[in-house]
């Protein structure tokens, strides 16, 4: 067995919890959690689930490249909430519909649902939350979802530079905490990377209602860690108060709006992106996928469903073409809100959203595993 620094195991055990348990509840969704735990651990009693999960953590060193991390937080959202249930529901769908055994599941970040990032908290609040999460204040662990995620991702890439995280959210602010350590780790490795960002929205605000780290601003705050701003390539944009030229000229990013993709076709868009990646001498790709990049007929169980979007096949075509040339070494799937019903179809819209999110997630997991 390969060696793993026990300090990292201790950090993972303290700051994470078994898959599906990121939303802290007593009875709510108990049956849904039990289904996932039975599939993953052949056990449903939470005490035993915790023990089995902790015993498996050292095996991370000998696992494949793709490692799953759930972040069940929607505190960084702001329209319709409910994406905190995404990690539980998407995992269950993946277990039921796709091969899951080849991927190591690191678990879920322990989430206090009222918190976002530690920098917004005073010392007294941090100490109170440390007592709630860890039992005492005699530790250096963070207490907010974004800060914990960033710390976990930093430790992960430090210990396992050849592996890649697949993050399941949660609202899109989480991608800040996932991509920042990824970009810094790749820079230290001498790798040039690009982020392929699927979304109906640009997420390029500097702040939203005074908060600088949220679902509408996370992209702005990772630009400094990219080799160049145009290494953020956004696809599916269509809900914006400003034209495409504003975002490209102001931030230097590259965008392909949903209308362009529908008019030119996914394959042509992918070829244009390949031309840029080749010119920029990019080595690897990170894919951040907000499910609302898809048209609302395919993905309505989300906080901000939008019409006139991409089809699942368009997204997969672009990903397949890019991955044929470039390794995808990290990814995330965000903004699945299973209990959110914007169509009046109830469970039907949840199943449809999970079906398409699952297909794309399975592709991304496989791509990371083969990278």
TrEMBL record:
GO biological process: putrescine biosynthetic process from arginine, via agmatine
Keywords, sorted A to Z: Hydrolase, Metal-binding
UniProt xrefs under SUPFAM superfamilies: Arginase/deacetylase (SSF52768)
GO molecular function, one term: agmatinase activity
Keyword Metal-binding: yes
Pfam families, per database record: Arginase (PF00491)
Iron-sulfur as UniProt keyword: no
InterPro entries assigned: Ureohydrolase (IPR006035), Ureohydrolase_dom_sf (IPR023696)
Family: Belongs to the arginase family.
Protein name in UniProt: Agmatinase
Source organism per UniProt: Thalassotalea agarivorans
């Amino acid at each position: 067995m390969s060696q793993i620094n026990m300090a990292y195991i201790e950090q993972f055990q303290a700051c994470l919890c078994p898959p599906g348990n990121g939303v802290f509840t007593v009875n709510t969704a108990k049956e849904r959690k039990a289904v996932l735990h039975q599939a993953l651990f052949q056990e449903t009693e939470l005490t035993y689930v915790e023990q089995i999960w902790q015993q498996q953590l050292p095996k991370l060193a000998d696992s494949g490249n793709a490692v799953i991390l759930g972040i069940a937080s929607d505190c960084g959202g702001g329209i319709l909430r409910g994406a905190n249930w995404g990690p539980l529901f998407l995992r269950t769908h993946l277990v039921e519909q796709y091969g899951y055994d080849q991927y190591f599941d690191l678990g879920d970040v322990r989430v206090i649902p009222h918190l976002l990032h530690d920098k917004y908290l005073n010392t007294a609040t941090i100490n109170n939350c440390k007592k709630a999460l860890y039992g005492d204040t005699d530790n250096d662990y963070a207490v907010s979802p974004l800060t914990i995620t960033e710390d976990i991702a930093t430790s992960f890439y430090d210990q396992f530079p050849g592996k890649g995280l697949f993050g399941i959210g949660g609202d899109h602010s989480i991608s800040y905490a996932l991509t920042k350590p990824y970009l810094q780790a790749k820079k230290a490795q001498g790798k040039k990377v690009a982020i392929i960002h699927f979304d109906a929205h640009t997420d390029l605000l500097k702040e939203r209602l005074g908060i600088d780290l949220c679902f509408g601003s996370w992209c702005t705050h990772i630009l400094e860690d990219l080799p160049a701003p145009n290494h953020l390539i956004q696809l599916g944009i269509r809900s914006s108060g400003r034209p495409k030229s504003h975002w490209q000229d102001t931030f230097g990013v590259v965008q392909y709006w949903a209308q362009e993709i529908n008019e030119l076709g996914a394959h042509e868009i992918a070829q244009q992106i390949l031309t840029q990646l080749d010119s920029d001498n990019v080595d690897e790709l990170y894919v951040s996928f907000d499910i609302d990049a898809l048209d609302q007929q395919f993905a309505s169980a989300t906080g901000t469903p939008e019409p006139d979007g991409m089809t699942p096949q368009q997204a997969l075509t672009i990903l397949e073409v890019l991955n044929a040339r470039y390794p995808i070494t990290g990814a995330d799937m965000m903004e699945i809100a299973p209990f959110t019903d914007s169509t009046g179809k109830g469970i039907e819209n949840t199943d449809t959203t999970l079906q398409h999110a699952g297909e794309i997630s399975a592709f991304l997991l496989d791509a990371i595993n083969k990278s």
